[in-house]
Amino acid sequence: DVNTSSNNNDGGFLHISGEREGASEPSRDENNTSQLDRMEQMMMRMEEKLATVSSLENRCETLEAKCSSLENLLESTSQSTKEHIDSLHLQLDQNCNSLENRLEAISRSTKEHIDKALKYHEMLIRNQNWEYSAPVYTLNELADTGFNDAEATHIYQTSQLLKRSTEALRRGMFPHKNDITGNGDRGLGISLCINGIFNDDTVDELSPHWREFAAALKDFKPAFDVLPGDCQTCIAFNGVNLNQELTQLVKDALVSTPFKTVSFQQSCYFHGDMSAIAAMIGSNKYLQKLDIYQIEEMDRDDITKLSSAINHHPSLKDVNIGRCFSSRLGNEMLRSLLRTDEFKLERLSMSGNNLLGIRTGFNVCTRLADFLAANPRLKELDLQNNRLDDSDAVLIANALRSNTTLRTLYISENDRVGAVGDAALSLALCDVSSLNSVADSNHSCMIETEYALDGNESEEREINRANKIYRLLSSRNKTMSNVQHFGDIDVKLLPNVLEAVQNYSNDRDEDIVKELSIVYEIMRCWDKVSHLYIGQSKDNDLL
């Protein structure tokens, strides 16, 4: 439309519009609405972006927290790793030190072994050109020099034995590869069994042979160093008679030779008597077993010297003094051995020494009983073939009730020990007057009188104790009399009683009753059991 009106506020200008007059107001409203919509959309997008920003902020915070956690974890892991590495370093250092110590010990041991082997071979090399210098005469030659047949035979046999023994020593060998200890010990030994005529002429004739033997024995120590550690080395002097010079030579030779078993038997005589033997014992720190048999005519001074050498020896564990006393001095010998407060022996044999008990003024069996009751380390005691009687056996039996260390007691061939003594010893092993007395009996010692007493067949004390208790329960079961001996036992201990029966039956003999028979007897005959069931029934009725 064309508006030509001049009456307007535009100063007469011409207006051309595509809209009709009167339509401009709605158009503005629509524009405003459109702008509002756009603004709303923009606001919504801004809110969405703000939400996105807020989410990102949350994620950033979460990431920061995770980073902080990771930093802490990393720090903790780093510290833990450092501690672990330090621990590994310490362990490695310890292992290295241990290996170094072991290597050093092995190296030192190997060096010692090589040194010992070298000394042994050096000894063999030195002896390659050695020759036996003492003259060995025939029986005819000895007879021609004025010796009678007995003297000539003794000199000839002894010189031959000493020559063979000396030659073996010079070759680095033990003269006899037999066991001379009588106890099945592994090892090698020197046995000089020389029983014959002893007088100045025969001793002088044999002196060169003894000098050769003593010199070879003194030079023989490297042979001991190459033996296995568990090898039992032994030397026995049987019927040897030596003057002062020869005694000193043999004593000096034994100082450097570590025999573990030394035996003096059959009227063996050294100049100085027991002083020489005590010196030989004391000078050998390796000695473990001493055997003195039929060395007669020892006096109190000899007893003092011998007992002192035994009591103060650092390694001696086994002593056998047999048939050395025909008088009451045997009691003195036993008392001297038991006097020390530091008793170290594990085995002591005093068989055939005329031991007397209560009739001698001093009751050696009272001393022995007190000694055994104190639980010394002694494991085996041999009192066979003495003059002990029933009262002595009773004293020993009473001591055994509190002893748990002695494993074997030999007391046979004491003719004065009769039925009373045997009964006391048997009672010490198993007193069947009550279950408590059985439990308190000796469960560790085997006793051999003229026969082995029953009771401690096992090496385990608890097994012996269980067997004895079950035997008593079994014997009473045959007459259904077990419950008569229960006395004031609380019936609440019934489960313990039944459990004990089961436990004791585990090691029972085949010839006694089964445990169910004893359980049946207890459940049937013990009146307190029925009262227990009656009480339980009343409680159930109340419920």
Write the topology of this structure.
Layout: E1 2-3, E2 15-16, H1 24-126, H2 139-144, H3 149-170, E3 187-193, H4 200-218, H5 221-225, E4 232-238, H6 244-255, E5 261-265, H7 274-283, E6 289-293, H8 300-311, E7 318-322, H9 329-337, E8 347-349, H10 364-373, E9 380-382, H11 390-400, E10 408-410, H12 419-429, H13 435-439, E11 446-448, H14 461-477, H15 494-505, H16 515-525, H17 527-542
Parallel strand pairs: 3-4, 4-5, 5-6, 6-7, 7-8, 8-9, 9-10, 10-11
Antiparallel strand pairs: 1-2
Task: Give your account of this protein's structure.
The protein is 54% helix and 8% strand. Strands 3-4-5-6-7-8-9-10-11 form a nine-stranded parallel beta sheet, covered by helices on one side. It has a two-stranded antiparallel sheet with strand order 1-2. By secondary structure, the chain is α/β, with parallel strands linked by helices. The radius of gyration is 51 Å and the shape is flat. Helix 7 links the parallel strand 5 and strand 6.
Q: How many DSSP-defined strands? A: 11
How are helices and strands ordered from N to C? EEHHHEHHEHEHEHEHEHEHEHHEHHHH
Number of helices: 17
- What ranges have pLDDT less than 50 throughout 5 or more consecutive residues? 1-20, 177-188, 537-543
Spatial strand sequence of the major β-sheet:
3-4-5-6-7-8-9-10-11
| Outline | flat
Major beta sheet, specifics? Answer: 9 strands, parallel
Overall pLDDT: 84
Strand content: 5-15%
Fraction of helical residues: 40-55%
Radius of gyration: 51 Å
